[in-house]
Amino acid sequence: MHQLKKGDCITICGEEYRLLEDPDDKGREGTVKCVTWGACVEGKKENKYFLKYAEMKNELAVERILREGSFCMDYPYIEHIFTTFQYELEDGTEIFGALGEYIEGHNLKRYWAAHRHIEEKKKFRFIMQLLNAVNYYTEYVKGDGFVHRDLKPENVMVSGDENRVVIIDFDLSHIPESRLTISGYDEETLSKLGGTPGYTDPRCFARLSRGKLIELANDIRADIYALGRTIWFLLTGREYFT
After folding, report:
1. Residue 182 φ then ψ, to 5°
2. Most buried by CB count within 10 Å: which residue of 73, 80, 87, 108?
3. d(Cα 69, Cα 12) in Å, to the nearest integer?
4. What's the first-to-final CA gap in the chain, in angstroms?
């Protein structure tokens, strides 16, 4: 595809945004490319935002950005997505993307590597913020609610002022009434399961039983397990499973 680069401008909802860096390739899945690109952009009044996008023809990547776009929640410990958009590049390539909050700082894994020690009071504050964040998005819709499905240290940002943590990357999430995100471990459903080894509840990988899928990956139990592992890392700086 014609790749955007640092200094390029893109118009979203009538406003122009300039890329402050070259976009990074954000992911591949097995032999099937599920590539999204992400970069920091600058809007009017020099405000910074995070831009994530993919080619329209990459249906799996677009599906994930659409899921992330559902998290338009204005809550201090959840990445806020402002809007999704469609845009045509100079060479005619159509892209689909999301414009979200830009969080200055490092993810929890890099933060631990840089500091080697976190004060107990700060750990407690971060834990409470994570608990409140997960409670907020899972209670946002009653019944079949939102589930992140990929909670881990890399998806928790520590702000530059070290006063808050923010859960990011909801592109593997389950959104209410969606049948796209299902559990069950086989060739057809693996790409829809989400999660990361060591942080995904092992019950999510249960094989098909009598033609029925275990729905654990779509409810709060999946995030409770991953949150426990993430909090362990926050407390110790080590992975629970190596």
Report:
1. -130, 160
2. 108
3. 14
4. 37
CA nearest 52: which of 83, 13, 31, 89?
A: 83
Whether residue 34 contacts residue 57, with contact meaning beta carbons closer than 8 Å, is answered with no
Residue 80, phi-psi category: left (phi > 0), alpha (psi -120 to 50), beta (remainder):
beta
Residues ≥6 apart with Cβ < 8 Å to 36: 26, 27, 52, 53, 54, 61, 64, 65, 171
Residue range 78-118, pLDDT digits in tens: 999 999 999 999 888 999 999 999 999 999 999 999 998 89
In this structure, the number of other CB atoms found within 10 A of the CB of residue 142 comes to 8
Identify the residue whose tokens are 């200094």: 7
Provide Rg for the chain, Cα atoms.
18
* Spatial separation of the C-alpha atoms in residues 205 and 188, rounded to whole Å: 13
